[in-house]
């Protein structure tokens, strides 16, 4: 009888043929093609990486949500109050972060040459010629990519949460056919980085994953251009979103989640880093691949950057000694901010009682006992034989304001000192009227000294950002692009660029690669 489309005799003959093969040929037959991991393993692997990050950094992610709420002037605990209770929140965290951000923006915009490219090999004419070429190239691309706007925005998030916005360097072609560098800003909660990544080192760790919802029609267009495969299959099965569901993401943006019935969106994860097999052995040392829902739409492609592992950069303005995720400016004062909000809200509640008064009511004296509410212009019918008033005002003490004022002043000073961006640093004199000129100078110098240290950490993040851009340009930018070398640099560096144009892509990357100091 046929078994699986083959007779028993034919099956036995093929088994005997396999048994007659030499051992090495038999092993090769059964291991053929196993050097490439199956799509199912890639999907499981990226989901496990995301799960590992979310489980190990669960407490940090919850704190980040509270810090972002504080930056937006929201305090979740207020939702538990009664309707009549005041729900006052101040914008102190937002004000602190923006004041610090403006100092960074001023440092960049007030100095046209806010970064330079140099080398220690000053006695080598060839090296210095290449340094000059990179100086002009990076300045041109930095201006086109609007880095003077992007870096302060990255820093704002670093001050608010402890880690900056992620900046992703993308080499793309626009609608006019112009090729070039584009910087995409990504919220930190859309990045899932290996929790073993080291402090100040954005290229460390096993992996870095960018996840987001992408319009289905965008993926289809990408498939037409050869960027993706199997896009239509991604609608068959919903992806594992982990803790990052779209409703939660919309809520953090102050929006309500509502699905557009003509605009389906797909949950996409772009993986960068090393891939291991089920035994923990390294299969791909450094690749990128893309998973849409649970469909692999880009197979693993080796990354060919000279130095970086992924074109995604983040930094911290207040780095942690051990973890990649740093500290927020307002992190240590978050509870103090909430205390001040609660104090103001309770003061407003107390003032409501004092201004509006509270009354005891004897409803047995009213014609309509159910009608007890008092309001301006109201009339109440009292029984003819009732003696005295049906309403008696409850006397309350109003001498609490000095204590509240003292508490607000004390906690305000603690908050100012705790977030480093003091009133003097912001150019304000504070509440003290008897402060001397010498004291102002000393305190201002102290405040600037602390913030200058923070500024150096921001500088280091900016240096790494420029180095990442240099690596991306080294890999993708070539003489035949539009704009090419000569269109950007003119004839100033013609000697170097003319030699590079004659090289193969691999030789060109080696020739353009430059160990420079940013």
Terminal-residue CA separation: 76 Å
How would you describe the shape?
extended
Number of strands: 12
H and E order: EEHHHHHHHEEEEHHEEEEHEEHHHHH
Note the main sheet. 5 strands, antiparallel
What share of the residues does DSSP label as strand, in percent? 5-15%
Structural class, judged by helices and strands? Answer: alpha+beta
Evaluate the radius of gyration.
Answer: 32 Å
Arithmetic mean of pLDDT:
85
The total of helices stands at 15
Task: Assign a percent range to the helix content.
Answer: 40-55%
Low-confidence stretches: 1-5, 28-34
Spatial ordering of strands, largest sheet: 5-6-7-8-9
Overview of the structural elements:
The protein has 518 residues and is of the alpha+beta class. The strands form four sheets. A five-stranded antiparallel β-sheet has the order 5-6-7-8-9. The termini are far apart. The protein is built from 15 helices and twelve strands.
How do the strands and helices of this protein lay out in sequence?
Layout lengths: L1 E2 L2 E2 H12 L3 H9 L7 H18 L1 H14 L20 H18 L15 H20 L2 H15 L4 E8 L5 E8 L4 E3 L13 E9 H9 L21 H7 L12 E12 L5 E11 L2 E8 L9 E2 L20 H23 L1 E4 L29 E4 L6 H18 L18 H40 L8 H5 L4 H7 L4 H8 L6
Antiparallel strand pairs: 1-2, 3-4, 3-10, 5-6, 6-7, 7-8, 8-9, 11-12
Kindly summarize this structure in a few lines:
With 518 residues, the protein is an alpha+beta fold. It has helices at residues 8-19, 23-31, 39-56, 58-71, 92-109, 125-144, 147-161, 216-224, 246-252, 334-356, 401-418, 437-476, 485-489, 494-500, 505-512; strands at 2-3, 6-7, 166-173, 179-186, 191-193, 207-215, 265-276, 282-292, 295-302, 312-313, 358-361, 391-394. The model is unreliable at 1-5 and 28-34 (pLDDT under 50).
């Amino acid at each position: 009888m046929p078994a699986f489309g083959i007779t028993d005799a034919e099956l036995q003959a093929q088994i005997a043929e396999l048994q007659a093969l030499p051992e090495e040929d038999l092993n090769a037959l059964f291991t053929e093609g196993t050097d490439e991991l199956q799509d199912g393993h890639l999907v499981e692997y990226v989901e496990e990486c995301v799960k590992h990050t979310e489980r190990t950094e669960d407490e940090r992610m919850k704190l980040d949500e509270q810090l972002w709420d504080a930056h937006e002037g929201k305090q979740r605990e207020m939702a538990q109050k009664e309707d009549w209770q005041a729900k006052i929140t101040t914008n102190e965290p937002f004000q602190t972060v923006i004041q610090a951000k403006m100092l960074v923006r001023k440092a960049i915009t007030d100095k046209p040459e806010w970064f330079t490219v140099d080398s220690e090999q000053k006695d080598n004419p060839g090296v210095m010629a290449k340094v000059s070429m990179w100086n002009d190239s990076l300045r041109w691309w930095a201006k086109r990519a609007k880095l003077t706007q992007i870096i302060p925005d990255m820093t704002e998030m670093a001050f608010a949460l402890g880690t900056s916005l992620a900046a992703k360097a993308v080499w793309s072609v626009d609608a006019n056919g112009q090729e070039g560098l584009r910087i995409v800003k990504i919220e930190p909660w859309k990045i899932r980085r290996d929790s073993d990544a080291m402090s100040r080192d954005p290229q460390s760790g096993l992996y870095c994953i960018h996840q987001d919802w992408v319009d289905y029609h965008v993926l289809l267009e990408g498939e037409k251009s050869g960027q993706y495969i199997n896009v239509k299959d991604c609608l068959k099965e919903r992806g594992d979103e982990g803790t990052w569901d779209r409703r939660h993401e919309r809520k953090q943006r102050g929006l309500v989640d509502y699905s557009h019935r003509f605009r389906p969106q797909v949950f996409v994860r772009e993986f960068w880093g090393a891939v291991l097999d089920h035994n923990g052995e390294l299969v791909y040392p450094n690749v990128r691949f893309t998973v849409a829902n649970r469909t692999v739409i880009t197979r693993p492609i080796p990354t060919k950057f000279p130095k970086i592992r992924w074109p995604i950069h983040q930094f911290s303005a207040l780095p942690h000694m051990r973890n990649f995720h740093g500290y927020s400016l307002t992190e240590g004062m978050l509870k103090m901010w909430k205390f001040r909000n609660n104090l103001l809200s309770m003061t407003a509640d107390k003032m409501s009682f004092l201004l509006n008064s509270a009354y005891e009511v004897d409803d047995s004296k009213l014609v309509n006992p159910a009608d007890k509410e008092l309001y301006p212009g109201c009339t109440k019918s009292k029984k003819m034989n009732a003696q005295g008033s049906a309403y008696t005002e409850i006397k309350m003490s109003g001498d609490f304001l000095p204590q509240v004022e003292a508490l607000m002043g004390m906690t305000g000073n603690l908050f100012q000192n705790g977030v480093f961006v003091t009133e003097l640093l912001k150019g304000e004199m504070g509440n003290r009227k008897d402060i001397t000129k010498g004291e102002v100078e000393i305190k201002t110098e102290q405040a600037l000294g602390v913030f200058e240290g923070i500024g150096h950490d921001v500088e280091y993040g900016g240096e790494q950002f420029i180095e990442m851009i240099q690596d991306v340009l080294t890999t993708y930018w070539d003489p035949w692009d539009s704009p090419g070398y000569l269109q950007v640099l003119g004839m100033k560096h013609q000697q170097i660029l003319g030699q590079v144009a004659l090289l193969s892509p691999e030789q060109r990357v080696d020739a353009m690669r430059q160990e420079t100091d940013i």
